[in-house]
Amino acid sequence: MKKIFRRLYSTQDAYSTIRAGVKGEKGVCCPNAKREISTAPKVIMLLQTSQLLLCLLFLSCSTCSSSSLKHSLNATISLSVPSYCIDAEVEKIFKRRLQCVLSAPPAPSDALDKWGQTTITQEMRFLRRISPSEYQRSHELLAYHWFVEADNPYRRASCSDAELEYLPFLPMHWMVVQDPAPPCGYASLIEDIQAYVAYVDKRDKALAGSNNKQQPMPFIVASTFNMRTEMGTGMPTQVRRGPVYDIVTKFVTNMHLAHYERWPQCPDLLRKGWKHVVELPYIPLKKLAGPFAEGVNALLVNNEAVRHSFVDHKRTRTFLFSGRMLLFGPERVCSVRNAMATLATSRKDFFAVNITEDESWSGGTAENLIAAYADSSFCMVAKADSYSTSSFYTAIQGGCVPIVISDWFAFAFPWAVPYEKFVLRISENDFLSDPSGALDAVLAKFGSEEKLRELRGYLWQWRSFLSFEGLDAGAPTTQQLRNQMKEQFAFFADEATPPPVDSKKKTVLPFELMLIELRFFLTQEISSHFGLMCETPFFCSHSNGVQVPPLKLASLKEKRSHLCKHTHRLVGMYKMVYNQKCVRILWPLRPGYLKPNDASALSQQDKLFIEHFHNITARPKDWMSRVYPSPPALNNITYVDLNTAKYLLSQK
Fold first, then answer.
1. Residue 118, pLDDT score
2. What total of structural domains would you count in the chain?
3. Are 597 and 607 in contact (CB under 8 A)?
4. Residue that terminates a domain, selected from 480, 515, 543
5. Residue 608 near residue 619, CB atoms below 8 Å
6. Segment among 123-132, 368-377, 397-406, 517-526 with least mean pLDDT
7. How far apart are CA 263 and CA 238, in angstroms?
8. pTM strictly above 0.70
9. Would residue 222 count as lying in a domain?
10. For strand 637-639 and strand 573-577, is the pairing parallel, antiparallel, or unpaired?
C-alpha cells in the first residue's frame, strides 16, 4: 500500500493536479485529479482518499467545495463534539503520579479564577511563575483538569455510551527532573503502563465473551519533549527486546496522542511511533493569571472595544524574535536562529531576546515578553532543535503577525483554522540565503499599516481556537465561534447547529477540536495512511501550498559563505525517519574530511571550526555555548535576566 502511495505521488501528472487543486482553482479542491489521471478504479479511489486527507488535515483550503469533498469517500466533518469516558480502574492506575505535585507552593489569592483551585491548576500557576517554558508545555495538566476535575459537558458515566476513552496519563517531566524516585520517576511510569496494559487485556477478553459494546478508542494528552526518548530512560534495560519492551511498545503503537510536537527527535530505545498524533497548540503566554481566568469574554469576537485596541494599535517595534540561542548539533551552525542573532546586530528595526538561561526564564521575565509581543508588528518563528515553537502561538495571542521559518512546522488544526489569512511563511533556504533581504521583502509587501490591520483582524478572529480559556459551553459567544468554522470551510457536514450544552459547564475550544479530529480518524478506514503524505517537505510546507505557502522572494541574492551553503554536507543535518515518525541527525560519512574544492573555498576560521565540531577532544572550553558564525556584536540582543529584562524591554 505504501508503495502505491509513493508511486502515485511521484508522477508528474498527479503532482501537478494536486498542486492545482491545493490552490483552490475555480473552487475545486484535490479530487479534480480523477479526471486527469488514467488508472484503475481502485487506484483512483486510493488517490482520492489520500487527497482528501491532504486537504482536510494539512491545508487551509477555504475554496474547497462541499460537493468535491463529498465526491471523495463521501466524507465530511461534523461539528458536534464526541463524547468520552474514563475507566475508573485506569484512572486509579495513573492517579498515583498526582502525589508528585502536592509539594508545589500555594498560588497567591489574586491568581484564583472562576474554575476554582485544585492541585492541578495550582501546579500550572506555579509553573507559569518559575518556568514559563514548562507552563507552555503543560497540556497534560490542563487536560487532566478539564477531562477529570471539571464539570465537563462531554463526559459520559459509562464507556458503553462514549465514543472515546481518555487516559489520565501524566509523565510530568519537570517533576521527574526534580525527583526521579518513585512515584515520580519514569521507572514508575513504565510500571503504570504495564499495569494498564495488563488490565486492558483482561478487560477486553471479558468484553469479547459478552455482547457488550467494545471499549471506545483510547487517547492521551501529554507534553513531555521527546517523550518516547524520556520514557525509555525508565525502562529496566536499554535493550530493544524483552517482555517490558514489548508491553510498552504495544502501548505506544495502539495509542492516539495529542501533543504539541508532531516530529520529535528519534528515540534510541522506543523506536515504534504512536498510532496517530494530533497537533495541539502550545499554551500561549498571556497577561491572564491562569489558563481559565476571569474576564475571558473580553477576548471574544463580539467585544468591539477590545478588538479595536488589538487590531488598530500601532506597534513601536517592527521585528521581534524571542527564543533560545544555545542550540545543539547542526542547528548551531549557519542556522535560522543563528541568522536571528546576526539580524539583531545589523538592523535597527530587529530586536532579539535570548532566553537560553533556564534560571532567568521565569514569570517576571515572561510578563515583559508578553508586552514586547503586543508591541511588535512581526514576530519571527524560527526552528531550533525542534520544528515547532511556542512563540508561534504566543505571537498570535499578542496580535503580532507570525513569520514562520521552519519548513516542517505542522500547525494545530489546519482543517479548522485558515492560517494562510494571517501567517507569513518564508522557506528556510530562501531566508538563509539573504535574511535581511527577506525581511525587506516582507516590509515592502505587508509593512503598511493598512495591511497590518488586515492581518491583525484575522488574528483576532481566529485566535480563540488556539487558546485555552475556559468558556461557557453553551453561551452564544462560544456557539458563534463554532459556527465561524462552518462558515469558513465548506467540508463541514450540512447539519443543524449542534444543540447547546449546559451553559454552566465549561469547555476549551482546542480540546473540542482535538476530539473532533480524533473521531474523524476513528470513523475513516483510511486513517492509517495519513502519515504517508509527508514524503518530503514539499508535501508538508512550501512547494504546493500545504498549510501556508511560502512567500515568493525572487529578488533575493545568495549571500552565504561556502560553509553556510554546504552545511548539510560538511556539518550534518536533521532528517525525517518516516517509519519511526521522528527526526534524527544525519552526520557526514567522513566527518571533518574536506574535498579539494571545499579546502580552497573555506576560510581558515571555517576549517578550524569544522575540525573542532567533529573532534570533541580538540574543542575550546567555551565552545559549546557559541552559535557559528558568531554575531559581530551584541547590539539589540537581550540576554534575559531578572535584573535587566524589564529595563531593556522598556527602552526598545
1. 72
2. 4
3. no
4. 480
5. no
6. 517-526
7. 23
8. yes
9. yes
10. unpaired
- Angle 392-393-395 from CA coordinates, rounded to 5°: 70
Q: Which domain does 406 fall in, by range?
A: 296-324+336-480
Distances, alpha carbon 58 to alpha carbons 407, 522, 551, in Å: 13, 18, 18
C-alpha cell at 261: 510536537
Q: Provide the residue type at 373 as one letter.
A: Y
Torsion of CA 450, 456, 457, 460, to 10 degrees: -170
Over range 69-96, report the average pLDDT: 76
The secondary element (H helix, E strand) that includes residue 199 is helix 186-208
- Find the angle CA(169)-CA(175)-CA(178) to the nearest 5 degrees: 155
> Where are the strands (E) in 214-284, listed by range?
217-221, 256-259, 276-279
Domain shared by 428 and 348, yes or no: yes
Is residue 267 helix, strand or coil?
coil
Residue 18 in domain? yes
* 90 and 60, same domain (yes or no): no
Domain assignment of residue 367, yes or no:
yes
Q: Are residues 231 and 130 in the same domain?
A: yes
- The pLDDT value recorded for residue 603 is 94
Q: Per-residue DSSP letters for 523-578?
A: H-GGGGGGGGG-SSGGGTSSSS-SBSPPP--TT------HHHHTHHHHT-EEEEET
pLDDT digits (tens, 9 = 90+) for 583-611: 888 999 888 889 999 999 999 999 988 88
3 state DSSP class of 647: helix
Using CA atoms, how far apart are residues 119 and 107, in angstroms rounded to an integer? 10
CA–CA distance, 48 with 31 (Å, rounded to integer): 6
Q: 105 and 70 in one domain?
A: no
Which of residues 480, 514, 531 is at a domain's end? 480
